[in-house]
Design brief:
alpha+beta, rod-shaped, two-stranded antiparallel sheet
């Protein structure tokens, strides 16, 4: 977004996303051909996977007759 020209439209007249290399001013100012940040957000496929595991574990130690330690 830093190198994208703030006054440059997101899409051109044909509906194609513009980028910083689409402008003739980019040659004068020396901008790199950076992608349009709006196109990145709209076209990028983002997947998020969540895995939840619930459980418990316990150990029982038989210390003596009738005396157990459970942890």
């Amino acid at each position: 977004m830093i190198e994208m020209l703030p006054w440059y439209p997101v899409r051109d007249k044909l509906g194609v996303y513009t980028n910083s290399a689409s402008s003739k001013i980019s040659d004068v100012l020396g901008f790199e051909g950076m992608a349009n940040p709006v196109s990145i957000l709209e076209l990028q496929k983002r997947e998020r996977y969540n895995t939840q595991i619930f459980g418990n574990a316990a150990l029982t130690f038989h210390l003596a007759d009738g005396l157990d330690l459970k942890t």
